[in-house]
Amino acid sequence: MFAETIEVPQAVNRDSSYERGTSIDEKCDLDASRSDEPSSEVIDEYDPIAFSELGIGKRTVIRHECCVASTLHCESAERAKQVINEDFEAKYPMIHLTLSKMKSLKREMAELGVSNGIDVYTVATAYVYFEKIILKGLISKVNRKCVAGAALLVALKMNDYKKSTIKSYIEQAEDQLREPKSDLLAYELPICSVLQFRLQPTIDEIQPHVDRLQFEM
User: Fold this and answer.
1) Segment Disordered: which positions (predicted)?
2) CA 201 – CA 155 distance, rounded (Å)
């Protein structure tokens, strides 16, 4: 058995009201047994485009004899965000994170990559780690920033970045994600263990992320 049962050592004290209904110990934890959903809900097969497709919006396809057309339903930004998050929750009830929040975190990861001169392949690797852990139902509002930050930290080390770059990244991640260095470092081993130390994504897993990041970074 690997790290679905590993708990991260508590590295920093926070007020118990940091997240309603969640203790401090649970914040630094990637324990699948704590999930409110049955383990049968966890998705083991990883599809790198599954989440991005949910953000496309609703379309109506119009078919004629000579052509096929589609229309994208126009809604306010706030309403579209609400609908997409509802669709995401219905499809992935084991995930305790909204789609919009997940995308926001990935943008922060990409921004950290740009500011530290990190290549798209490494950021894409971190995306794969992050989304795989999300699909295991181990991400919540409490630990999401630590896991996102530590996922990119593990990707940096897997791709042999210099210590100076890693140090600079950690300092900026502390500031941007508003999480202490001790918490980011505490998540490294649990992330590797939850992924069963399979830290080299296949080309099929990583390429869709690389393609999108080339336009975003």
Assistant:
1) 13-41
2) 11
**Contact between residue 162 and residue 134 where contact means Cβ atoms under 8 Å apart:** no
The total number of residues shown for the chain amounts to: 217
What CATH number does domain 95-214 carry, 1.10.600.10, 1.10.472.10, 1.10.150.120, 3.40.50.300? 1.10.472.10
Question: How does DSSP classify residue 62?
Answer: E
The whole-model pTM stands at: 0.76
Give the number of C-alpha atoms closer than 13 A to the C-alpha of residue 18, restricted to the C-beta side: 17
Q: Beta-carbon neighbour count of residue 107 at 10 Å?
A: 11
Contact 148, 130 (CB under 8 A): yes
Per-residue pLDDT of 64-123, as tens digits, reads 666 655 555 556 677 778 888 888 889 889 898 999 999 999 999 999 999 999 999 999
d(CA 195, CA 45): 12
Residue, of 80 and 11, whose pLDDT is higher? 80
13-34 burial code (b ≥16 CB/10 A, e <16) = eeeeeebeebebeebbbbbbee
- Token pair in block for residue 214: 């080339």
E strand or H helix at 89, and its extent?
helix 77-91
